[in-house]
Amino acid sequence: TGLIFGIPIWALALVLLVTLAVVFAVLLILRRNRRKKEAEALELQRQSEESQRDLDEIDAVQEDKGSPKYHIEKFVDKNPEAAAALLRAWLNE
Fold this sequence. Notes:
This protein has 93 residues and is mainly alpha-helical. It is built from 3 helices and 2 strands. A two-stranded antiparallel ribbon has the order 1-2. The chain is rod-shaped, with a radius of gyration of 36 Å.
């Protein structure tokens, strides 16, 4: 009594439970790996976008070298006293 195909029912139940536990564990591991890969992909995309923004800023700065604002800022950085004197002269006029 209690045999299926000559195997005790408790042994079949045990095999079934172990099989279900293994399947569940494999699914959890696969899900975790998928999430980890997605997080890495998002991080790489974020870094790529950041790098592109940095390159765009560098390009913008390089393009601005011909602008009067760039030259004025450069003059003020190199000659703050002369810039102050020039401003005083303009204000006095």
